[in-house]
Specification:
The complex is a heterodimer of chains A (883) and B (155).
Chain A (H helix, E strand, L loop, with lengths): L4 H43 L4 E5 L3 E5 L1 H49 L12 H21 L2 H20 L1 H7 L3 H38 L1 H6 L3 H54 L4 H41 L8 H5 L11 E9 L5 E10 L4 E5 L6 H8 L7 E6 L2 E2 L5 H7 E4 L10 H5 L17 H12 L22 H14 L3 H10 L8 H20 L1 H4 L2 E3 L11 H6 L1 E3 L13 H9 L3 H19 L7 H6 L7 H14 L6 H9 L6 H4 L6 H16 L9 E3 L11 H6 L1 E3 L6 H15 L3 H8 L13 H14 L4 E5 L7 H14 L4 E5 L11 E6 L2 E6 L1 H4 L5 H8 L1
Chain B lengths: L2 H9 L9 H10 L1 E5 L4 E3 L7 E7 L2 E7 L2 E8 L4 E2 L1 H5 L7 E4 L3 E7 H10 L1 H30 L5
Antiparallel strand pairs in B: 1-8, 2-7, 3-6, 3-8, 4-5, 4-7
Helix pairs in contact in B: 1-2, 4-5
Classes of the chains: A alpha/beta (883), B alpha+beta (155).
């Protein structure tokens, strides 16, 4: 990137800059004329008028009397004002556009550079420092870049025009006007320089603060674990103090500069009035000229101020620019060509050959030394060694994530450095111990390894606006690809269609042992039946099959109480029974159903409102009796109580009021609180004897009233249970069951799961559920998955692209022993005949591999098959024994 | 059957007989009512125990393993309390209990029981008394047996 900001701006916006400059220069004559006009108006039209006549070729001679001449000139003046304003508007917009494009380009380039940083560099810089540079710090530079050429020319030209005009009117007044300029031009930049230095320091300090905050957030568990919050608070407090100090000094300087500018600005008119007035009185200067000069001087301060501001901005931006650029130019930056060139057909052509490879850290410590080895692409190779043996570095080197600092690394006959990422990133699958998962669905994490470029980069989007969108991106030198295009390289996953791709995903997930987890994610998942009609139909088929199974097997029948429009469901809450459907959105949220006006109306209509109030009182009495002795916050409240520990005293008070004055004296709020209690009752679970059959019948009747009278505007807020329709608001499992799991059945959860599983398997529908599980969101950095699940998913992701060489760098270290062994076996089988290099955390597993490399102190100390190395006196034997 | 009836049921269990009514109610409210189909097993001999059961309705068979196969040693019916040792200490189940008819039970989990006891020490004291009483009874019987055997009376 250009080291000089002007060079950068000129290079990327030459054409636009020239157009703008031309437009700018065009404004000067207009400006001059609009300055001249007031003088003509004052002197010729208002003062000593002489009849004016113009000879026009078409209209003949047009004569003006004084009034019409005055009007003519006035309108001409108005026109000039409008014209001037219009051109200024255009210039401003064009400048803004220019600046935004340059800013976009700069940010894009900086980010692209981050993606080319050598990996070890990330140990030295933190995201807390890099992010603000790209996001906020360059923003000001963008503003400057738009105006880098136009503003000095425009404002300078404006100033010169005004000055020229004033000098022509009266050279003395002209000189007076600019008398203090040299002082300002000398003094202000000097002070400004100090402000700029302080601003630079402020940026650095804020960057460090951001970094520090980021670090404490990442390590917040340690802060709690070691009671260091005071230390951290003080540290931040100290940094805030430094920032405070810098900012305060900046303010003092800034306002002093302002004061100076204002003072000088006000000093000049003093001379105008005194000297100019004297000249007019003496008759050396026309009155009109003085007015014009005064007007011009008023205008003069604005371009002068702009120029001074521009100078400050310029100095500041140039410094900031170079400061930022330097941060993004670390040694060993990957050449652009490695990420840009693409040859979709390229594969790894031959064995990986390392000769005398060495790797030295930036702190000078040797990680690898003199490693020479040839690794064919069809062998299964285990790499073992202790933590500091260099085995991890070797794996990363082989995946070309690190570059050797000495010796040579070749893939077939190509030198590693010459191989673009389109080959290493597609033909090699690398999974490290802390493989990262992106905050997206399981499916999108799996296809991450397949999304290198849009499938058809040349294809333009159908949408006209979208085409424009992309053109604008290219104009700013940004990525020419359409983010909304189809990016998934199905062929790389050996899939011809989306269906096959899904199958492939399920295959690799099964291979890494995630099938069961994905299946359970699927059961808990939801789908949109309109877009995923097939799955919805499958699930309805499963629902029918469950029903059939329940009909055949009386034991199973007791397990699930199905939803029935005409029957009360004793295993559901009263709220669920009343609504008889799933709430859509918050309107009929089950927790606050009683508060809904329509529900209140339904209760009244069904004659249930008093019954609910009485039941509510009894529930409250029981809760107070049962839980009053428990300390607030006891887990029983959460597990069993209808009333939280904070609300309990309040209910006690309400009950007291009922005892004194009966229910009639209750306020509306108290009534509502009591009425909402029975909504949570589950007949089969709570056994309070408050929901007898009579009441149950009434609730079923109320359910009907609710449904039949539901006003149009509330219809979309509830999805009624319908045996023949998929419920989009319910989970897959709830859709399959179409009922409630009975509370009185022992071991119900396991038995229901088995029932669903067997029904799905009998109909071959398990994969449909798993497909839903693919849409499970893994959370930020995969935080909704366990460590073991994350590692498995990362391995599955690498398998999706069917690499020529799979490198696993302790990629299963988070799994327990038995799972590790199972996964090892599955992957070895899956990769038979294909390259596999596995850095093992447990050396004894090396016996399943064709070949074993033993690393020690950065050197390759043993290389051979397991039998020949697992003998007394060999390092492998020691490693296995100490495992 | 409502909570009140369950409370009555609990009161008939010697271990709980002396507890305050409100605590019995809490115990009943926080327990689960489980229904076992005939032939289903409540728990098996040798398993780690996690709950005790009070039989509300139906019959259950108590069987122990013997060289000749399972041997029925008792039949349980309404109001019987089974598996209580499991909620007091960590020992494997000493017998297998299976529902003979459809069986309605109240399940008191060990976890819950301990939480109640830690919350209400008075409960612990009452239960301790009952256990001590039982121990005393057992010791007395043992003494009786020893005396009987010493005097040559057939046991």
């Amino acid at each position: 990137m250009e080291r000089n900001i002007y060079a950068y701006v000129w290079r990327h916006s030459r054409r636009m800059q020239i157009i703008l400059l031309v437009a700018t220069v065009l404004t000067f004559p207009i400006l001059y004329f609009s300055l001249e006009l007031p003088k003509i108006i004052v002197n010729d039209a208002i003062g000593s008028f002489r009849p004016v006549a113009f000879d026009l070729p078409l209209f003949g001679t047009i004569r003006f009397d004084q009034i019409s001449y005055l009007l003519l000139l006035s309108f001409l003046f108005l026109f000039m004002v409008v014209l001037n304003g219009g051109i200024k508007y255009y210039l401003n917009v064009a400048q803004g556009l220019l600046g935004e494009r340059l800013l976009r380009r700069l940010r894009y380039q900086l980010y692209a550079r981050v993606l080319r940083f050598p990996l070890p560099h990330f140990r030295k810089v933190s995201s807390g420092e890099i992010i603000p540079m790209i996001t906020s710090e360059v923003e000001q530079i963008g503003g400057f870049m738009g105006s880098a050429f136009v503003t000095p020319i425009f404002q300078g030209g404006y100033l010169l025009t005004l000055l020229g005009f004033m000098l022509i009117q009266d050279w003395l007044l002209g000189l007076l006007a600019i008398m203090f300029y040299p002082i300002q031009a000398w003094l202000i930049p000097k002070m400004q320089y100090r402000v700029n230095m302080l601003a630079k320091e402020r940026v650095r300090t804020v960057r460090k603060l951001a970094d520090r905050i980021g670090e404490t957030i990442a390590g917040v568990a340690e802060v709690h674990a070691h009671d260091t919050s005071a230390l951290e608070r003080t540290d931040v407090s100290d940094r805030l103090g430094v920032i405070f100090d810098i900012r305060y000094r900046i303010f003092k300087l800034k306002y002093f500069i302002k004061f100076l500018n204002n003072f000088i600005g006000q000093l000049t008119p003093f001379f105008f009035y005194s000297v100019g007035g004297y000249l007019v009185i003496e008759g050396d200067l026309s009155f009109g000229a003085l007015v014009a000069v005064l007007a011009a001087y008023k205008d003069l301060s604005s371009p002068w101020k702009e120029l001074l501001d521009f100078y400050q901005l310029q100095a500041d931006s140039a410094i900031k620019y170079i400061q930022v650029i330097e941060q993004f130019d670390p040694p060993g930056l990957m050449p652009e060509s490695q990420q840009e060139t693409e040859d979709p057909e390229a594969r790894l052509s031959g064995p990986i050959v390392l000769s005398n490879v060495g790797l030295v850290d930036d702190d000078g410590s040797r990680r690898l030394e003199n490693v020479s080895v040839e690794l064919p692409l069809d062998q299964h190779i285990a790499v073992v060694g202790d933590g500091a043996s260099g085995k991890e570095e070797l794996a990363m080197l082989l995946a070309r994530l690190l570059n050797p600092t000495s010796g040579s690394l070749r893939y077939g006959d190509v030198e590693a450095a010459d191989l673009p990422e389109s080959v290493t990133g597609r033909r090699i699958g690398y999974v490290g111990p802390n493989a990262y998962l992106f905050s997206a669905t399981v499916a999108s994490n799996l296809t991450y390894a397949l999304r290198h470029r849009p499938n058809d980069p040349a294809k333009l989007p159908d949408d006209e606006a979208r085409v424009k969108w992309l053109e604008e991106a290219v104009r700013s030198g940004c990525s020419p690809y359409d983010l909304q295009a189809d990016w998934i390289d199905r062929a790389a996953a050996d899939a011809a269609s989306d269906e096959e791709l899904v199958r492939r995903m399920l295959d690799v997930l099964t291979l890494v042992g995630l099938d069961d987890d994905i299946y359970h994610f699927g059961l808990r998942g939801r789908i949109d039946p309109n877009s995923q009609t097939e799955i919805a139909e499958d699930m309805l088929a499963a629902r029918a099959a469950v029903q059939a199974r329940l009909n055949d097997d009386p034991d199973a029948a007791k397990l699930i109480e199905r939803f029935d429009q005409d029957r009360y469901n004793t295993n559901a809450t009263v709220a669920e029974n009343l609504l008889f459907g799933n709430p859509v959105g918050d309107g009929f949220g089950l927790d606050r159903l009683a508060e809904h006006d329509y529900v209140a109306w339904v209760l009244k209509e069904a004659g249930l409102d008093e019954a609910f109030l009485q039941t509510g009182i009894k529930v409250a009495e029981t809760m107070v009796e049962l839980f009053a002795d428990l300390p607030p916050g006891h887990e029983f409240f959460e597990l069993f109580s209808f009333i939280s520990s904070e609300d309990l005293p309040e209910f006690q008070a309400i009950l007291n009021r009922v005892g004194r004055g009966g229910v009639e004296g209750l306020s509306a709020t108290d009534r509502l609180r009591l009425i909402s209690l029975p909504f949570k009752l589950i007949a089969a679970r709570h056994r309070l004897g408050l929901l007898e059959e009579d009441m149950q019948r009434q609730v079923v009747a109320a359910r009907r009233i609710f449904r039949e009278n539901l006003p149009a505007h509330l219809q979309g807020m509830v999805e009624f249970y319908d045996p023949n329709r998929f419920a989009s608001a319910a989970t897959i499992q709830d859709n399959i069951l179409f009922g409630k799991v009975a509370y009185d059945q022992p071991d119900a959860a396991r038995r229901v799961a088995a029932l669903i599983g067997s029904v799905l398997d009998a109909r071959g529908l398990r994969s449909s559920v798993m497909e839903v599980g693919l849409a499970y969101h893994v959370g930020v950095a995969g935080s909704r998955l366990s460590g073991a699940q994350r590692q498995r998913l990362a391995v599955a992701r690498a398998l999706m692209k069917r690499p020529d060489l799979l490198i696993l760098n302790q990629a299963t270290s988070g799994l327990d022993g038995a799972s590790q062994a199972r996964l090892l076996e599955a992957i070895l089988q899956h990769r038979s005949g294909q390259g596999l290099i596995w850095v093992l955390s447990r050396p004894q597993q090396a016996r399943f591999f064709d070949r074993v490399l033993v690393m020690a102190h950065g050197r390759l100390s043993e290389d051979g098959d397991y039998e020949s190395l697992n003998v007394e006196g060999k390092m492998l034997r020691d490693l296995i024994q100490s495992d | 059957m409502s909570l009140q009836e369950e409370v009555e049921l609990l009161r008939n269990i010697p271990l709980f007989a002396k507890l305050e009514p409100s605590k019995l109610k809490l115990l009943a409210f926080t327990s689960e009512r489980l229904t076992f189909n005939s032939g289903h097993t409540l728990f098996r001999q040798g398993e780690q125990g996690d709950a005790a059961y009070i039989i509300i309705d139906g019959e259950a068979a108590v069987e122990v393993d013997s060289p000749t196969g399972p041997l029925r040693v008792a039949t349980l019916g309404r109001n019987d309390f089974v598996g209580e040792i499991a909620i007091l200490c960590d020992v494997p189940r000493t017998a297998t209990v299976t529902a003979v008819t459809n069986l309605v039970t109240l399940r008191i989990s060990k976890d819950l029981f301990f939480r109640l006891i830690t919350e209400f020490p008075q409960m612990a004291v009452e239960i301790m008394r009952e256990l001590a009483h039982r121990l005393e009874l057992t010791t007395a019987r043992l003494r009786q047996v020893i005396n009987d055997s010493n005097t040559g009376t057939p046991a």
